[in-house]
Specification:
mainly alpha; 0% strand; elongated
Length: 87
């Protein structure tokens, strides 16, 4: 860890920038927490109307992947299942 001499060498502008950076990260972490809670509520609503939340989570995950990559992953999975006698 830096000694006190090094810490005192930081000018006020740098200290203020550090404070602002830390505050911004903290604010974004709080927003992330709020968004995660909202997502949880939406999944709860979906479950209440009869949707399978496991399937919804998988759909969301798959939609983040490009179609070609997803098809390649599915092909590899199918190949492994066939090799294991599971398909």
């Amino acid at each position: 860890m830096a000694d006190n001499a090094e810490i005192t060498k930081i000018d006020e502008t740098t200290r203020e920038k550090l404070r602002q950076t830390v505050a911004k990260i903290e604010r974004l972490e709080e927003e992330k927490k709020e968004v995660a809670e909202q997502i949880k509520e939406v999944y709860g609503e979906a479950k209440a109307i009869g949707f399978d939340t496991k399937a919804l989570r998988q759909v969301i995950r798959l939609r983040k992947i490009e179609r070609a990559e997803r098809e390649e992953q599915e092909m590899i999975l199918e190949t492994y299942l066939i090799a294991l006698g599971e398909a």
